[in-house]
């Protein structure tokens, strides 16, 4: 039931557009309260977040502790750039302490030795606690990240609980096989936890990335050292604290806030870490692989960048296609690894599509993410804000047509106007590189072969959207596109059971679903001679 609700929220099934979460102009009273970016004069005073920051330390061996150096760093409110709180800054020594705790919890503690049913029950209790603290978790996420509170409260935090229940369901169904062999041998495989899992997560969906990594690691009986993103350290510490409240034994999850080049690199290089999972940029992914190779050859899974095509075919219902393409790009301030960031539109519907895409962008509700009805908050930080504005300038300079937007929104914080470019050429930077912001890039195409070739001419291969009413076109595109996810007449459907990951430089391995379990298991073959067997 919950899964259905979440997926319909995310997939924007048109029969049930959730109001006010993704609605545009459907609720007249709401529309009057909020500023469309094109008419708003200034951003109002920030709303006071309805939550207190209680946890700012590192979580090692089940206890809150300061960093070994005593250092802290500020986490900022993207609405203003003001400091929310000072958080412990983990570094090499803290990673060492956390890995020792995780190692001990794995080698000597009760976690890998308890029954899978007991582990499952702890995950279920954690899911209950997430639901109990839904609004605090959502408020922390919005404050630290800038995403609309309604989306955090109605999608992300419920999905965190859903993912934990999904993995609780797997915990007691993980087992090996009896394998028929040629000779007189009994052969079985044991699926064992891999050991200490290092996990490095980004800032765009802090709680979901926590769930995608922590869920399968715990279901398989591993222990964890997780490094949160320096932009958004608050929600992971809170969630891990709830895990202990749910009965997790000491040391099973350790959370270190800190920076990539210090704490992150120490985790990736650690000799006692048995597996590493990373989500973030392709450039950092390459560094992580090198660190793993130079240390102990730990296996690595990577969820990296994307430049996903969203293909609008000639038979598409243009209203619906424009809405879905808008959602595919602008959701989460455009800060999605799988954002539909190359909108390919067939020449027959191109002009009509552009008018609709432009109108949708102009009508997008931008403003304080704590305000009801807001669809787009600020970008995460000044670095991303400047980078996005740089891409916008490069789009203008290379001759693409700026249809709407193109500038900052308001004069405080990191808000950017929803921006639409048309007449974009394939070799433009805005058509090749990950912008990670509210900038839609529209390209024209003539036929299927051409759009397949152009879609695949990217170093990325994370996802694709296909908008058509023709089943044959859908099937042709589905098989031709070299990407890890194809969304047909929908986008960003992220149920717990659906695997996610990339081809090419978008990553290695799959998260979520049954496929994620193999990232956290070793397979041991056990062979015993069979004496006088009745059969082989
Ligand atoms: P990043 O990849 O540098 O950071 C992601 C995580 O990796 C953070 O926890 C960071 O502390 C850690 N990290 C950074 N350098 C590290 C190192 N040398 N060793 C170990 N860990 C390290 O990404 P950043 O700088 O936040 O954003 C840059 C770009 O990356 C964005 O503009 C966007 O294009 C992309 N990105 C993609 C994401 C995705 O979901 N695939 C998420 C975040 C960013
Ligand atoms: Mg922050």
TrEMBL record:
- Biological role stated in the UniProt entry: Possesses activity on acetaldehyde and glycolaldehyde in vitro.
The similarity comment for this entry is:
Belongs to the aldehyde dehydrogenase family.
Q: Where in the cell is it found?
A: Mitochondrion matrix
Query: Its GO CC terms?
Result: mitochondrial matrix
Biological process terms from the Gene Ontology for this record are: carboxylic acid metabolic process
Sorted alphabetically, the keyword list is: NAD, Oxidoreductase
Domain Aldehyde dehydrogenase: where? 64-526
Q: Fetch the CDD domains from UniProt.
A: ALDH_F2BC
Q: Where is the active site?
A: 303
Know the name of this protein? aldehyde dehydrogenase (NAD(+))
């Amino acid at each position: 039931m919950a899964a259905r609700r979440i997926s319909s929220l995310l997939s924007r099934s048109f029969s049930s557009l959730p109001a006010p979460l993704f609605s545009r102009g459907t609720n007249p009273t709401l529309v009057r309260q909020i500023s469309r970016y094109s008419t708003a004069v200034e951003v109002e005073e920030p709303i006071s977040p309805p939550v207190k920051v209680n946890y700012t330390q590192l979580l090692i061996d089940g206890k809150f502790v300061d960093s070994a150096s005593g250092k802290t760093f500020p986490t900022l409110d993207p609405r203003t750039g003001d400091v929310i709180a000072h958080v412990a800054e983990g570094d090499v020594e803290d990673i060492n302490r956390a890995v020792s705790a995780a190692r001990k919890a794995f080698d000597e503690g009760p976690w890998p030795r308890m029954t899978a049913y007991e582990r499952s029950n702890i995950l279920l209790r954690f899911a209950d606690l997430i639901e109990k603290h839904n609004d605090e978790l959502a408020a922390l996420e919005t404050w630290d990240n800038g995403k609309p509170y309604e989306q955090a409260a109605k999608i992300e935090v419920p999905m965190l609980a859903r993912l934990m229940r999904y993995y609780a369901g797997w915990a007691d169904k993980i087992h090996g096989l009896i394998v028929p062999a040629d000779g007189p041998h009994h052969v079985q495989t044991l699926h064992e936890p891999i050991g200490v899992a290092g996990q490095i997560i980004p800032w765009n969906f802090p709680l979901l990335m926590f769930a995608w990594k922590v869920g399968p690691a715990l279901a398989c009986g591993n222990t964890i050292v997780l490094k949160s993103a320096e932009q958004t350290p608050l929600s992971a510490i809170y969630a891990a604290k709830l895990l202990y409240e749910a009965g997790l034994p000491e040391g099973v999850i350790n959370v270190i806030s800190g920076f990539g080049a210090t704490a992150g690199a120490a985790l990736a290089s650690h000799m006692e870490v048995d597996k590493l999972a990373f989500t973030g940029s392709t450039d950092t992914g390459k560094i992580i692989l090198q660190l793993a190779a130079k240390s102990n050859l730990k296996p690595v899974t990577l969820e990296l960048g994307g430049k996903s095509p969203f293909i609008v075919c000639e038979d598409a219902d243009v209203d619906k296609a424009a809405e879905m393409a808008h959602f595919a790009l602008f959701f989460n301030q455009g800060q999605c690894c799988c954002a539909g960031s190359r909108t390919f539109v067939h020449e027959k519907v191109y002009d009509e599509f552009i008018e609709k895409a432009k109108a949708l962008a102009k009508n997008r509700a931008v403003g304080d993410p704590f305000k009801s009805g807001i669809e787009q908050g600020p970008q995460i930080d000044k670095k991303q804000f400047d980078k996005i504005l740089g891409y916008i300038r490069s789009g203008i300079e290379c001759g693409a047509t700026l249809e709407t937007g193109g500038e900052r929104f308001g004069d405080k914080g990191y808000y950017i106007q929803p921006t639409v470019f048309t007449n974009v050429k394939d070799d433009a930077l805005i058509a090749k590189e990950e912008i990670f912001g509210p900038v839609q890039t529209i390209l024209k195409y003539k036929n299927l072969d051409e759009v397949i070739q152009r879609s695949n001419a990217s170093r990325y291969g994370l996802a694709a959207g296909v908008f058509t009413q023709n089943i044959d076109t859908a099937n042709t595109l589905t098989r031709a596109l070299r990407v890890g996810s194809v969304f047909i007449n929908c986008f960003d459907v992220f149920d717990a059971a659906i695997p996610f990951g990339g081809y090419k430089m978008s990553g290695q391995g799959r998260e979520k679903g049954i496929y994620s379990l193999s990232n956290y298991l070793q397979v041991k073959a056990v062979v015993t001679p069979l004496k006088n067997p009745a059969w082989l």
